[in-house]
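User: Earlier you gave me the apo prediction for this protein. Now I'd like the version with zinc ion bound, so I can compare the two side by side. Same sequence as before, with the ligand SMILES added.
Assistant: Got it. Here's the input I'm using:
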Amino acid sequence: MKSLQIETASLSYPVFIGGGIRKNADELLSSLDLPMTKLLLITDEEVDKRYGEELLNLLESKWPVKKVAVPSGEQAKSIDMFMKLQTEAIEFHLDRSSCILALGGGVVGDLAGFVASTFMRGIDYVQFPTTLLAHDSAVGGKVAINHPLGKNLIGAFHQPKAVVYDTECLGTLPEKEMRSGLAEVIKHAFIHDEAFLHELLKIKSIDAITNEQLNDMVYKGISIKSAIVSQDEREAGIRAYLNFGHTLGHAVEAEYGYGKITHGDAVALGMQFALFVSEKVLNCPLDRRQITSWLKQLGYPGEVKLDTSTEALISRMLNDKKTRGGIIQFVLLDRIGSVRLHSFTAKEIERWLNMWRLEGGE
Ligand SMILES: NC(=O)c1ccc[n+]([C@@H]2O[C@H](COP(=O)([O-])OP(=O)(O)OC[C@H]3O[C@@H](n4cnc5c(N)ncnc54)[C@H](O)[C@@H]3O)[C@@H](O)[C@H]2O)c1
Ligand SMILES: [Zn+2]
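And here is the structure of the complex with zinc ion:
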């Protein structure tokens, strides 16, 4: 098992990473020295089938625990599910010294974390991530649910007390979800670590990724995220770097309709566009064609669907939480590991997008 310590202005907490460590979850939780009068274990139905009962049985020997499984998928990040979980917490008599455990991917982490941030004005929670994407979402303390008018619009900053990342759980993850999570790993490499990107470029297919590579990806991805978040917990400055590939990515996700494309596939498209703009505006000396063909080989899309209009994407970008006064902020690279924030008008982005799309995404 490896461990990392995340240091933020508000809190410091450990991340434990290793294959099979869920079987020691009781000891790891005890080592945190939290009051834990009761535990509410929140998971989703898919994850519950595989890991829910096992974790419940283990923890029940030490604490009063109630397990609740929400339907799997993005729709669980709703105000109705939030209320249901608050009701479960009240009926189970959780108190201010109780703890919520989030066993699952980013959906469960964001939802359970938001419940923890608001129940009795905020109680402890611990993340047990089970997807590769959750190396990103489980660290950093952003928790949220969706509003019908937009994703993650209702949320809080609430850091977990610990992250227990059993990488063995990734063994049951569908390929599509693995690819989605890998996009965030690739993002972390692009913005911070050239050597790591070169390691990743050796991966020839998703199903060829070894356990050793997975452990390494999770460890390095979390290290990079934590280095950024520890300097900027509330997104006043460099935390924006984590948005690399996300300005267009979020627009594509919203325009296709949530669930029609995975977050990672959309981010992979966004990264390809950001690299195109980086080349044009900052002369970023990257072999963009090599990157594009590698991403395609891994199964990522290389271009935005033809029936999605550039105007619609621009309008989505203008509505993004990070857009201010009609100026769209883009995260660019002047080389791998060296990030530049750049502001564009909608007109400028439209021009770049049209040019990139004419190239067929290349
Ligand atoms: N808080 C943050 O900083 C942050 C960052 C990035 C993304 N997010 C959020 O994360 C969410 C996406 O997370 P995700 O991609 O993990 O999706 P997810 O939680 O929906 O998981 C994807 C699918 O995999 C299944 N699954 C999970 N673990 C499994 C396992 N080990 N074996 C088999 N199946 C498993 C789930 O049931 C689900 O169907 C989005 O809502 C996004 O907004 C948050
Ligand atoms: Zn993301």
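For your comparison, keep in mind: Residues 179-358 form a domain with the Dehydroquinate synthase-like, alpha domain fold (CATH 1.20.1090.10).
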